[in-house]
Amino acid sequence: MPIATVDPATGRTLKTFEPMDAAAVEERIAKAHRTFREYRETDFATRAALLRAAADLLDKEREEIARTMTTEMGKTLAAARAEAAKCAKAMRWYADRAEGLLADEHPGPDDVEDSGAHRAVVRYRPLGVVLAVMPWNFPLWQVVRFAAPALMAGNTGLLKHASNVPQTALYLGDLFRRAGFPDGCFQTLLVGSGAVEGVVRDPRVAAATLTGSEGAGRAVAAAAGDEIKPTVLELGGSDPFVVMPSAADELDYAVSTAVTARVQNNGQSCIAAKRFIVHEDVYDTFTARFVAAMERLTVGDPMAETTDIGPLSTEQGRADVEELVQDAVSRGAQALCGAQRPASLPEGWFYEPTVLAGVTEEMRIHREEAFGPVATLYRVRDLDAAVALANDTPFGLSSNVWTRDEDEQRRFARDLDAGGVFFNGMTASHPALPFGGVKRSGYGRELSAQGIRAFCNVTTVWFGR
């Protein structure tokens, strides 16, 4: 894929970039490595002041960078503004808390004595240069949720961003520089995917983190594993949205949340609810309201304040969604709405919000992630069937469950194969909560204490008597 800004609302190429050559990549790796040796010695107060300065700049430039994101990948302008605000909030969250999250830990005196020590301390020390391979769908947030904790821990970062958001990638590198971070603390590598393995294998790069496709995750994990370097992977998701009869009194709220959960970011979110598993007692009512709400959504210009769903990010992305829908329909699924390109929008990569019912195991969409505004509906007879169907996926990122029954809540929390279980609400990422998945959704955790410790050397310091 060329490194270029292509407006998904029109399909027109607006700006192209030459990828960095090997010498330019080498220069940036060397600089990141040199800078780490000095930056690691800075105190938390210094790092926090720098990160707060970056947050202030981001707040000041919110409208500008929001328009850049919308132009590059098609999210609505309102969603882009909210993403920028969320990033600034996360920066301040880590600036305020990093020192406490990485404070020395002191084992109990009995354990210290039993170990033969006079004193023992557990310390969190930065690893070094961390490579971040990031996707286009949340082009600011995905990067900041790595960069904020990594920089506060004392690491330096190299960003290989998706090739269709080059201007956002360059903005991020420039943002941290203008905030006052030392030269080399955070740099953008404007390179194609073919250059990633070489960077991962470079001995000066200590670790890698990737958010993206399963294939990309496998490639980075394989190279890093061969070099015995730690990685954090956040890959695909096919999150269930389960509705049980005990939620019948708040079905309208569940439906409105379900719509947002499915079409957020134009349906292009790993943690978007994709499979709607509804108990037979409330299935017909939920389905009628859900389909009606999906049909009311406005598809159109992502810059317009009244637009609910903009275009998909790439022409291939829309083709992939169309293939999944067509495969399902050809095998007997019913399209309750959508399932086509909007006739009123001949330019750009738009796709109508779609609801499919009657999905069965032989359909590709039952197993594969639909990265667009397409929901699949399932009817189940009881809790056991809901749990079994929710887990019948190779992914395990997060899940949404609507029930007011405490016994059911305990059962779902215990038995769902997912990195998160959200009751009576929509899955969302927050700096205070660990984020990540199981199975083919990846491993490791971002955000919270786990996220900042992911790229630290947990060091035992033992003092003999």
TrEMBL record:
<keyword id="KW-0560">Oxidoreductase</keyword>
<protein>
    <submittedName>
        <fullName>Succinate-semialdehyde dehydrogenase / glutarate-semialdehyde dehydrogenase</fullName>
    </submittedName>
</protein>
<keyword id="KW-0521">NADP</keyword>
<dbReference type="InterPro" id="IPR016163">
    <property type="entry name" value="Ald_DH_C"/>
</dbReference>
<feature type="domain" description="Aldehyde dehydrogenase">
    <location>
        <begin position="3"/>
        <end position="461"/>
    </location>
</feature>
<dbReference type="Pfam" id="PF00171">
    <property type="entry name" value="Aldedh"/>
</dbReference>
<dbReference type="GO" id="GO:0004030">
    <property type="term" value="F:aldehyde dehydrogenase [NAD(P)+] activity"/>
</dbReference>
<dbReference type="InterPro" id="IPR047110">
    <property type="entry name" value="GABD/Sad-like"/>
</dbReference>
<dbReference type="InterPro" id="IPR044148">
    <property type="entry name" value="ALDH_GabD1-like"/>
</dbReference>
<dbReference type="InterPro" id="IPR015590">
    <property type="entry name" value="Aldehyde_DH_dom"/>
</dbReference>
<dbReference type="InterPro" id="IPR016160">
    <property type="entry name" value="Ald_DH_CS_CYS"/>
</dbReference>
<dbReference type="InterPro" id="IPR016161">
    <property type="entry name" value="Ald_DH/histidinol_DH"/>
</dbReference>
<comment type="similarity">
    <text>Belongs to the aldehyde dehydrogenase family.</text>
</comment>
<dbReference type="GO" id="GO:0004777">
    <property type="term" value="F:succinate-semialdehyde dehydrogenase (NAD+) activity"/>
</dbReference>
<dbReference type="InterPro" id="IPR016162">
    <property type="entry name" value="Ald_DH_N"/>
</dbReference>
